[in-house]
Amino acid sequence: MTFDTIIRGGTVATASDTFSCEVGIAGGRITALGANLGTAAEIVDATGLLVLPGGIDSHVHISQPSGPGIVMADDFASATRSAAFGGNTMVLPFAMQQKGESLREVVKAYHKKADGQCYIDVSFHLIIADASDAVLGQELPALVHDGYTSFKVFMTYEGLALSDMEMLKVMTVARETGAMMMVHAENYDAIRFLTDRLEQAGKTETKYHGTSRPIAVEREATHRAISLAELIDVPMMIVHVSNGQARDEIARARRRGLKIYGETCPQYLMLTEKDMDGLNMEGAKYVCSPPPRDKESQIACWEGLQQGIFSLFSSDHCPFRYDDPQGKLAPKGKTSFRWVPNGIPGVETRLPILFSEGVGKGRISLNEFVALTATNHARTYGLYPKKGTIAVGADADIALWDPKREVTISQSLMHGGTDYTPYEGIKVTGWPISTMVRGKFVVRDGELVGTLGAGAYVPREKSELAKPRTA
Ligand code: DUC
Ligand code: ZN
Ligand code: ZN
Ligand code: ZN
């Protein structure tokens, strides 16, 4: 057998096992795992390193329109470069529909932004803003058939929020097409009511962002989304869960036998509401939705990961620059938290944070880390076993980690388009030093060696996890 590359001397870990072996790669795929594989055009010495499946970040926002005068800090080139430095080999951004738009045209527009502009592989989730008969009856089923096998819906935000009636209709399409549905669960009316009341009381600083959407807002919507999904008997992923009460709604649904899944993100482990309490709108750097909560919620999110209630750990990378007229403070003369675009960067720091705080501190095992950051993403969204694992036949999407490297996270180390990291100053142990997509290095020993455009669009199968319980 001949190989293009052999990775030798490292410790390989998957979602289930950890073992010492060589990884033989040919034609962009893993073609052998074993001892003494022989010779190859290139031998990569991984002595002392971990050889892990490349991270899959199934929740990132790239080049999405975000309101008048606001521009996202990352395009596909900068986002996928940053992701690669963070140990990722694939990202799943959203192709976001706005009311009245044809979904097919939206997808074309996002391909135009992404094609030839990616360092690592990408695939798109859809965002359904317009639950019209034409969209749900024709466009959406056709796109699911074409490999866009997941979509997100929102229960809040002007122009995005779906009514319960619309949710039920969309859920019916998810069930019929076998698409995986993702839900942003927050109560729209409650947020509007609380935001108006805060503004009337002159409470407009960024710290009130959290007050305007407290835990009850998220818990109620999570409960309602689950109840609606139960009526239709459709599986569903509750994205970006921030606290124990929403987590418990998912746990209860699972005990009723429902296929309800959960995702959490670094901000809910590492930040709290207090971070939004900065001087002169400095707190805007941490404004995201759902908002970071408190210590108790952080612990609850860790437990959710440990107990498998959350199967995904994603970044929800949604980058805006801070010191920029098109960034976090863009809307001129509008100083209320209401106008701060929601979202924070994190595609480059997701993996080191979970590795250090999770594996390093004994909260999760190395295999759980792999599951939460790669394998489960591939399984949930129809990419497994081509992506998300180290196995013969899988794409050679691999990250080499130095488990001992100590790094203080700092914006100066980042490779994306934004101008700050919410995790500035956090010390981590363990860092991804090289990232390989389909057998080709994108980042090698901390240097960018990949070519722009080498990242490919990957159409997806339907997920096993999206199959309804009953036919
Ligand atoms: N939801 C997301 O998923 N990302 C950023 C903002 C939001 O509300
Ligand atoms: Zn969301
Ligand atoms: Zn998001
Ligand atoms: Zn660099």
UniProtKB/TrEMBL annotation:
Its EC number is 3.5.2.2. Coiled coil: none annotated. It is an enzyme of class 3 (hydrolase). The modification N6-carboxylysine is found at residue 152. Belongs to the metallo-dependent hydrolases superfamily. Hydantoinase/dihydropyrimidinase family. NCBIfam families: D-hydantoinase, PRK13404.1. It comes from Undibacter mobilis. Keywords: Hydrolase, Metal-binding. Residues 50-442 form the Amidohydrolase-related domain. This is Dihydropyrimidinase. It comes from the Bacteria. Transmembrane segments: none annotated. Carbamylation allows a single lysine to coordinate two divalent metal cations. GO terms for cellular component: cytosol. The lineage of its organism: Bacteria, Pseudomonadati, Pseudomonadota, Alphaproteobacteria, Hyphomicrobiales. Its cofactor is Zn(2+). GO terms for molecular function: dihydropyrimidinase activity; metal ion binding. Pfam families: Amidohydro_1.
